[in-house]
């Protein structure tokens, strides 16, 4: 039986990944229906600025399925219901003075430059993403304020040749203050839903009770907007990646000196001693009911006013119907997508793709993924995907590699050439567009761009003077630092 061509595509999310995907699929000019579903009122994703922080429910040690569960779908569709009040973590973490941290030439999608650079205020990427949709006339594909609440695989009917996908959609109609629910069916789906929505706070002895005893004292960087609420307060910041670094620096001179920064490992930006106004502490071991915070080295702090967890985020897929789709999509124990090939294709579902999961050059890598997927779904890819067994082998080998090198499945380093190899594979899989113009050309990553990535730094490296980096071996407060082998050293783009 011949498999019918893919004619309809749903893209979930209108951030930079969704913008890249919409442009790539539209350019193929062979799909009858492309829709981009976005739960926010405008495109922009992470870059939309929400001025009013909202206290978020967080449970130390919990993962997204616990705190961001699916909504109950109405029994019959279409249907209009009272608006849902369930927290969906759809506000963004953008703070007042946030600027980009990747040079503009390497951050932008290749066919439209950022208006200026190298680092811009947060509103520039937000405007850029909106304009990218309009410039490619893909704004007409947008369905805004529309959340995908369920994504279920529909098995191929007899002789129809291919599975399809059913999406249950919910649109908040603000004028009537109701939620409107309906469903739509598509031949293929692209997940572009981002992974910086659900904040993560580790499990720490006593933290749960501490939050109840001292409401509002412990927060996550997702709700940080500026240092003013912390004026003259005694603050502990946890984490020293991009958020922890920026927030600690912003608090110096505003909050009570010193700002205590709890670090689990040394970042490439840290020298041998903390910057003026900052005191480094090891990982927190315990929160006590009397208000004290105890660190791994046994030291403790009393009379704390605020604790800001800058411990990052984890991806959430509350719409993924594990029952209908034959299993979950994400392994929260191992921390990675289940059954992908090259972080982009799915072994079990040839009509599903994902853009934006790896921690790697952002917008630019989304473009390679989007073009490779569009070309593949159009049936015009230059290289075939390997057989399913080889894709499974790739996944197995990658788990072994990341375990050996103690990194995460979707972290793709720059320094050892892995990023270039990965982009090359996507570039070569896509191949050229048609002579007549259908399709987008996967971009070059030329010398100037690569030079900018390696030399134009928002956060200059401190290193150890030999170009090496150091990593702590223990989380227990032992102050000794150890040189570790390649792979244990933080990549120069680890913070992306
Ligand atoms: C604070 C912060 C600062 C950052 N700074 C930089 C930087 O300087 N440089 C850089 O390169 N990268 C930076 N990043 C990374 C940033 O996330 C990427 O640059 C990029 O914007 C990610 O795009 P995305 O489209 O993959 O995801 P997102 O921007 O998260 O977009 C996903 C979209 O999907 C929507 N969505 C999710 N679920 C659903 C659903 N069920 N139904 C409908 N819509 C849905 C969301 O509302 C969102 O609009 C930063 C991230 C954070 C959190
Ligand atoms: N444009 C900007 O300037 C800007 C600003 C903020 C954020 N961002 C972006 O936002 C995204 C998320 O960044 P993020 O900094 O929020 O998260 P992140 O990069 O995931 O970093 C999490 C941090 O928490 C630390 N950590 C985790 N558990 C800990 C524990 N128990 N005790 C102490 N520390 C702990 C980690 O330490 P280890 O390193 O040891 O794992 C790491 O420093 C990134 O893409 C980043 O680029 C950008």
Automatic annotation (TrEMBL):
Keyword NADP applies: yes
Signal sequence residues: none
Gene3D superfamilies xrefs: FAD/NAD(P)-binding domain
A Pfam family it matches: FMO-like
Co-factor requirement: FAD
Keyword list, A-Z: FAD, Flavoprotein, Monooxygenase, NADP, Oxidoreductase
SUPFAM superfamilies: FAD/NAD(P)-binding domain
An annotated Gene Ontology molecular function: N,N-dimethylaniline monooxygenase activity
InterPro entries found in the cross-reference section: FAD/NAD-bd_sf, Flavin_mOase, Flavin_mOase-like, FMO-like
Family (UniProt): Belongs to the FMO family.
Protein name: Dimethylaniline monooxygenase (N-oxide forming)
Biological source species: Exophiala viscosa
């Amino acid at each position: 039986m011949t498999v019918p061509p893919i004619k309809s595509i749903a893209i979930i999310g209108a951030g930079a990944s969704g913008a890249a995907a919409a442009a790539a699929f539209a350019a193929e000019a062979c799909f009858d229906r492309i829709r981009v579903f976005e739960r926010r009122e405008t495109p922009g994703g992470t870059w939309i600025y929400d001025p009013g922080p909202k206290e978020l429910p967080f449970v130390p040690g919990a993962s997204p399925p616990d705190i961001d569960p699916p909504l109950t779908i109405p029994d019959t569709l279409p249907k209009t219901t009272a608006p849902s009040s369930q927290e969906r973590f759809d506000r963004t973490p953008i703070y007042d003075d946030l600027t980009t941290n990747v040079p503009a030439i390497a951050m932008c999608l290749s066919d439209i430059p950022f208006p200026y650079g190298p680092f811009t205020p947060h509103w520039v990427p937000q405007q850029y993403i909106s304009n990218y949709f309009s410039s490619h006339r893909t704004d007409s594909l947008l369905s805004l304020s529309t959340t995908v609440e369920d994504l279920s695989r529909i098995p191929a009917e007899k002789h129809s040749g291919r599975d399809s996908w059913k999406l249950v959609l919910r649109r908040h109609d603000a004028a009537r203050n109701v939620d409107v629910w309906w469903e739509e069916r598509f031949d293929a789906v692209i997940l572009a839903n981002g992974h910086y929505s659900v904040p993560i706070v580790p499990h720490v002895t006593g933290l749960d009770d501490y939050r109840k005893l001292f409401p509002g004292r412990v927060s996550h960087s997702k709700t940080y907007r500026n240092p003013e609420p912390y004026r003259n307060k005694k603050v502990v910041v946890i984490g020293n990646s991009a958020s922890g670094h920026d927030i600690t620096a912003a608090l110096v001179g505003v909050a009570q000196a010193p700002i205590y920064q709890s670090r689990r490992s040394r970042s490439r930006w840290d020298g041998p001693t903390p910057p003026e106004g900052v005191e480094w502490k090891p990982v927190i071991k315990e929160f006590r009911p009397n208000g004290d915070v105890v660190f791994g080295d046994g030291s403790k702090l009393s009379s704390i006013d605020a604790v800001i967890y800058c411990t990052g985020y984890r991806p959430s897929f509350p719409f993924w119907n594990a029952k209908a789709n034959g299993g979950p999509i994400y392994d929260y124990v191992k921390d990675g997508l289940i059954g992908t090939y090259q972080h982009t294709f799915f072994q079990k579902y040839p009509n599903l793709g994902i853009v934006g999961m790896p921690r790697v050059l952002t917008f630019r890598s989304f473009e390679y993924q989007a073009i490779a997927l569009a070309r593949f779904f159009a049936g015009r890819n230059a290289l075939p995907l390997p057989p399913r067994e080889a894709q499974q082998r790739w996944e197995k080998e990658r788990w072994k590699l990341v375990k050996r090198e103690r990194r995460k499945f979707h972290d793709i380093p720059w320094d050892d050439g892995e990023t270039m190899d990965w982009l090359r594979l996507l570039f070569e899989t896509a191949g050229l567009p048609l002579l007549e113009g259908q399709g987008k050309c996967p971009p070059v990553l030329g010398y100037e761009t690569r030079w900018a990535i390696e030399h134009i730094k928002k956060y200059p490296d401190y290193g150890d003077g030999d170009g090496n980096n150091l990593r702590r071996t223990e989380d227990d407060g032992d102050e000794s630092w150890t040189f570790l082998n390649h792979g244990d050293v933080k990549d120069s783009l680890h913070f992306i």
